[in-house]
Amino acid sequence: MAVVYVVEQGAVVRKESGRILVEKSGEKLLSVPIIHVDRMLIFGNVHLTAPAVAALMEAGVDVAFLSMRGRLRGMLSSLSSRNVFLRMAQYDRWRDTAFRIRTAKAILKAKIFNQRQLLQRYARNHPELDLSKAMDEVNEALEQIEGIDEDGEIRTVIGKLMGIEGRASGAYFGGFGRMLRAEMGFETRQRRPAPDPINSLLSLGYTMLTNEIASLLEAHSFDPLFGFLHSIRYGRKSLALDLVEEFRQPVVDRFVLKTVNLRIFKEEDFRRHSDGGIYLTEDGLRRFFDRYEEYIEEGISVKGRKKSFRKLFDDQVLELERAIMDNATYRPFRIQL
User: Fold this and answer.
1) Residues 6 or more apart from 88 whose CB is under 8 A from it?
2) Which CATH number belongs to the domain containing residue 267 in this structure?
3) Which residue from 22, 43, 206, 210 could staple onto 30, CB 3.0 to 4.6 Å apart?
4) Using one digit for the tens of pLDDT, what is the confidence trace for 238-257?
5) For residues 264 and 254, is the Cβ–Cβ distance under 8 A?
6) Does residue 42 share a domain with residue 153?
7) Which of 32, 54, 76 is the endpoint of a domain?
């Protein structure tokens, strides 16, 4: 199954005899059987015809609409799964303070562990680079988060957990910047607007990751708005953000390090927008999606077996379902490098 990205501005997506066509000015840019499409992501000014929408929905293909800067505008989703019992259990666990705190703590411990793994792997491969300060601070954060008392008012406990995670991420990104072998103005992690090409790539990668996991959660009958770590906010898919945390370093950060250090992306692939932010050009976006798909499908070795990241995403959604249905401890993904 394929993920179709449409970034050609002014293009039209239409249906023709069981296929999805992407055309512009009479030129056929893409033709793919609908049965081979898993998801579609549309960027910027692209027209989707009504017959194409109907065909995609009937085939169970979700369509995400994003700005050219990678901001998710909205989604079209086919009818979701009907597992009402999972949703009932999810709401029950959300009301269970002990379960929420236990799950939030497990997610953040895994995130900080993955940060440490990436730093340690790079330090082993590049002994000339001193990452000891970043690793010491991340290790300290792991010890601190382990010592957090799980008994207490939920906002207070999660506030403490997020505070520790914030300090760990600050130290980690200090080391991350030193791992980059291309000068692109990266100093620290900043979100909107991205002030440099590295932050631009990270933000786009996290958007892709969040969108994919949100779609997967809905396909499995979860309510993506009810998270255990991230608080409820109008329109925010907090549960997707929860699961994204354990995959930030294994997926997006490693991808950005690899592509930048191999000079796949250079400064000329970016442009400054009127909001002051730095974003990929249209050609840069195409290259990003090509490389991202290769990377996601290539995956990583887990317990001696190669798995695509999409399989790992699905594994973790099923793991969360197990934890919720059995009122058990959630086991996040931890990378072994």
Assistant:
1) none
2) 1.20.120.920
3) 22
4) 999 999 999 999 999 999 99
5) no
6) no
7) 76
